[in-house]
């Protein structure tokens, strides 16, 4: 019997290089809902599209550099407006529960980001697909027992609005800036139901908008399966969970300040360029962080503790520069 010798095709240098090149780095970018609709004033949908377009410059730059990208966004102003619309129209149409409104805002804000980013990428000559997924965030139902609403949502309330809501039993209270706003329950997030699907799409090179508004919160009922909860979930903490589930290298938290400040609000305030976990824990314990910054630092610490390489907190317009260490605050596991 004659055996034919197997001939192995010669591989080109480019093919060999592709086989040994490391996979592209993955980043989860968290955008605040206030980046799309500033809380100090009411804005129409055209203005929200404009703010969205202005907020995506950093993402376009990251896409051009070849990063794998997932985007998480907030929805505080928008979901509060949806509640207001619900209440005003209650005599004519059946109101929707808060959990459903979180999913609704995740859909239409995702649409704004998706369309705006598609257009920006096309103008930049970058061929990347963008899509939005409504993901569900798992919470512990037991944590809601006896919990008090404390998460500010919606725009600032005028005194007459505040008093009307109070009279109807709606929870209201001051936010970190002293503005009176609606308050919602905010259970701690535990997991993301569709994290595996998001990971697959990101690894294919698609830019995925997920966990919008923190994602509609759900719990698992032994008989019924997933059931919704009338609450909102902090989007930065959910972004940390998503980044860990994706095996991301970096969590990038974009906000309206250029990093974490020591002694925030005082004459001695100073930006901190770099923190290790021990220093971040001390900062969280000493009470000098502004209330708006605390959940971002907590999310950054959570991600790094779960094995993430680094978390970066930076101004909305300075994301790529912050990733290069030129600005913002970088949180890492240790100082060495």
User: What is the strand tally?
Assistant: 17
- The helix content is 25-40%
What is the highest CATH level, the class? Alpha Beta
Structural class: alpha/beta
CATH topology: Carbamate kinase
Proportion of beta-strand residues? 15-25%
Order of the strands making up the biggest sheet? 3-9-2-1-12-16-17-15
The N- and C-terminal alpha carbons lie at a distance of 64 Å
Rg is 22 Å
Q: Supply the CATH architecture.
A: 3-Layer(aba) Sandwich
Task: Characterize the main sheet.
Answer: 8 strands, mixed
- Number of discrete helical segments: 12
Give average pLDDT, whole number.
88
Whole-number total of structural domains: 1
What oligomeric state is this? single chain
List keywords for this structure.
alpha/beta; Carbamate kinase; 8-stranded mixed β-sheet; disordered N terminus; single chain; 336 residues
Description:
There is one protein chain. This protein has 336 residues and is an alpha/beta fold. It has one domain (24-138, 191-325): Acetylglutamate kinase-like (Carbamate kinase), CATH 3.40.1160. It is 38% helix and 21% strand. The strands form four sheets. It has an eight-stranded mixed sheet with strand order 3-9-2-1-12-16-17-15, sandwiched between helices. A four-stranded mixed sheet has the order 8-4-10-11. Strands 5-7-6 form a three-stranded antiparallel sheet. Strand 10 and strand 11 (225-228) form a beta hairpin. Residues 1-21 have low confidence and may be disordered.
Question: Summarize this, please?
Answer:
The chain is 38% helix and 21% strand. With 336 residues, the chain is an alpha/beta fold.
């Amino acid at each position: 019997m004659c055996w034919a010798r197997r001939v192995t095709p010669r591989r080109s240098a480019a093919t060999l290089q592709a086989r040994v090149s490391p996979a592209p780095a993955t980043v989860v970018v968290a955008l605040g809902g206030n980046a799309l609709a500033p809380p100090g004033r009411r804005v129409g949908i055209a203005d929200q599209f404009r703010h969205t377009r202005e907020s995506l410059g950093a993402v376009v730059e990251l896409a051009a550099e070849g990063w794998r990208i997932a985007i998480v966004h907030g929805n505080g102003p928008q979901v509060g407006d949806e509640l207001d619309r619900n209440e005003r129209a209650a005599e004519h149409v059946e109101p929707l529960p808060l959990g459903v409104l979180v999913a609704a805002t995740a859909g239409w804000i995702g649409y704004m980001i998706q369309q705006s980013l598609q257009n920006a990428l096309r103008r930049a000559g970058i061929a990347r697909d963008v899509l939005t997924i409504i993901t569900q965030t798992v919470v512990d139902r037991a944590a809601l027992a006896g919990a008090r609403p404390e998460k500010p949502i919606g725009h600032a309330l005028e005194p007459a609005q505040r008093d009307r809501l109070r009279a109807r039993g709606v929870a209201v209270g001051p936010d970190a800036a002293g503005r009176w706003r609606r308050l919602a329950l905010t259970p701690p997030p535990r997991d993301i139901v569709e994290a595996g699907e998001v990971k697959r799409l990101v690894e294919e090179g698609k830019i995925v908008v997920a966990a919008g508004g923190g994602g509609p919160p759900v719990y698992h009922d032994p008989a019924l399966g997933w059931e919704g909860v009338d609450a909102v979930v902090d989007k930065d903490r959910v972004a940390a969970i998503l980044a860990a589930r994706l095996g991301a290298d970096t969590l990038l938290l974009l906000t309206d300040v250029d990093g974490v400040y020591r002694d925030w609000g005082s004459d001695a305030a100073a930006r901190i360029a770099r923190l290790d976990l021990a220093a971040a824990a001390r900062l969280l314990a000493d009470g000098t962080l502004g209330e708006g910054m605390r959940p971002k630092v907590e999310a950054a610490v959570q991600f790094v503790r779960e094995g993430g390489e680094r978390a970066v907190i930076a101004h909305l317009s300075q994301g790529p520069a912050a990733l290069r260490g030129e600005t913002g605050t970088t949180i890492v596991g240790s100082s060495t």
